[in-house]
Amino acid sequence: MKPQLEKMTVRTETIDGSLPVGYVPALIKIDVEGAEGLVIEGTIETISKCKPIVIFEHGKTSADHYGTQARHIYELLHNEARLRIFDLDGNGPYTLGQFEETHTRGDRWNFVARP
User: Fold this and answer.
1) Given CA atoms 44, 95, 109, 37 in this order, what sign does their dihedral have?
2) Residue 82, Cα to own-chain centre: how many angstroms?
3) DSSP H helical segments within 1-115, as ranges?
4) pTM for this structure?
């Protein structure tokens, strides 16, 4: 039996535009089933300025639905926000090549980015 899909319209907003003035987050956790690129784009100013720990999921199967590439996530968090990326076992910091390879293999999908 094929699942029935229902299309919904929802209001969205960026974290950068939603946080109270002066608020400095220490931790941001992102688990949005493949849409992490969109979330990171919408909070990149906050991440770059405040340098919170960012725990995020980036799995191949879910990311493919949104066209989210490992390179884009890496460029945002590492190159733009100046954070280092580790897996939850503490391996890292990941280079771009290592992050892309891990994503392609699909053997890890939980990561942490931190100063």
Assistant:
1) positive
2) 14
3) 36-41, 44-50, 60-66, 70-74, 96-105
4) 0.87
- Asked, for residue 98, whether it belongs to a domain, the answer is yes
Sign of CA pseudo-dihedral 87, 89, 95, 99: negative
pLDDT tens for residues 72-106?
A: 999 999 999 999 999 999 999 999 999 999 999 98
- Give residue 78's identity as a one-letter amino acid code: H
Separation of alpha carbons 84 and 114, rounded Å: 5
- Is 48 part of any domain? yes
Cα distance from N-terminal residue to C-terminal residue, the chain: 47
Strand order across the 27-30 sheet:
27-30, 53-57, 110-114, 84-87
- Domain of 102, in residue numbers: 27-110
**Spatial CA neighbour of 41 closest among 68, 9, 2, 60:** 68
CA angle 95–61–106, rounded 5-degree value: 45
The type of residue at 114 is R
